[in-house]
Amino acid sequence: MIPATFTLTDSELASCQLSADRLSSMCRVLRDTGFVVIENAIDPRLVTQVKAEHDTALDGYLASRGGLAGLADKTFGTNHVGFFPPIVGAVAAEEIVANPFAIQIMHSAMADIRCSFIHTNTACPGSGYQPIHRDTPTLFGIHNAPTPIVHAVVNIPLIPFTLENGATEVWPGTHWIVDDCEADGALLEERARFFPSQRTVLPVGALVVRDLRMWHRGVPNPGTELRTMMAIVYQRAFVHEEACNIPQTTWDSWSEDTQKIFRFNDIVPDESHTQRAWY
Ligand SMILES: O=C(O)CCC(=O)C(=O)O
User: Fold this and answer.
1) Burial (CB count <10 Å: 0-12, 13-18, 19+), residue 64
2) Atom of ligand 1 nearest to the CA of 76
3) What is the pLDDT of residues 165-188, one digit of tens each?
4) Does 49 fall in a domain?
């Protein structure tokens, strides 16, 4: 089990509420280590449904791009596919896109937040190592002082993540390294040799809230099954992010609180819904 892991109690699950003490412990772990895991935040049956709908959409997308062979040299790491699934059905369920436990943590850590980035990362069979990286540069290019968290990603594994099938590797504490990693010239591989890393071994039903600055990488999946995680990025509401478009039916199914998180996006008729694509 990853040290940064919490298990929700029956009463937390029933009320969808964290007590002030528990919330404060989770936020402290996020602040100290760069990530926090809740191992039972989502009904596994919903995750199974998300996987089925996601995989159908991903199949169609890959077919439209000539399969994995057609994406060779385009993806970030061999056979690591980044995909924006349609924001419909189970993928768009509030337990996924605005999970109440993840949202409480992020509201506490970042106050008012927004989201425009509903995405998945799939380590396909035959994937290799990605370069070690962080997903966002430092705030305002500040390199001489630590800054508070501004972006967080919520990762939701769609199958159990194991050491054998490509559980993501993370370097706890590295979100506090604020120098200009990219300009420094030393590969993070060289620097990361001096820190211990952890693998995010996770059951279905878990979620991870990760500071986007934390060093991490996708690793090989030598198995036969797609290893997919949702990667939904939230940021403090003052930060600009390219809008996505949300189908009207999905928008209407959301509570006011969820609509507030997605308020900077375009709401479109269902038939006009399109998603971004990297390649
Ligand atoms: O899929 C993973 O385990 C990590 C993916 C990732 O970090 C990325 O594509 O930026």
Assistant:
1) exposed
2) 9
3) 999 999 999 999 988 887 777 789
4) yes
Q: Say how many Å lie between the CA of residue 274 and the centre of ligand 1.
A: 23
Give the confidence band of 213 by pLDDT, cuts at 50, 70, 90. very high
How far apart (Å, rounded) are the C-alpha atoms in residues 62 and 71? Answer: 8
Tell which residue, 19, 20, 27, 7, has the closest CA to residue 209.
Answer: 27
Which residues constitute the domain of residue 162? 5-272
Residues in contact with ligand 1 (CB, 6 Å cut-off): 76, 80, 82, 121, 123, 130, 135, 168, 216, 218
Q: Per the domain annotation, does 279 fall within a domain?
A: no
CA–CA dist 113, 107 (Å, integer): 7
CATH number of the domain that 119 lies in? 2.60.120.620
Q: Does residue 180 lie within any of the structural domains? A: yes
Ligand 1 mean position to 89 CA, how many Å?
24
Q: Is residue 133 exposed (0-12), middle (13-18) or buried (19+ Cβ within 10 Å)?
A: middle
CA-based Rg of the chain, rounded to a whole angstrom? 18
In a domain, 235, yes or no: yes
Window from 70-79, 102-111, 136-145, 247-256 with minimum mean pLDDT: 136-145
Cα distances (angstroms) measured from residue 96 to each of 88, 91, 112, 243: 11, 7, 19, 19
pLDDT average, residue stretch 129-150: 92
- What's the one-letter identity of residue 220? P
Structural domain count of the chain: 1
DSSP assignment of 163-176: TTTTPPEE-TTGGG
- Residue owning the nearest CA to atom 10 of ligand 1: 135
Residue 140 has pLDDT above 90, yes or no: no
- Rounded to two decimals, the pTM is 0.97
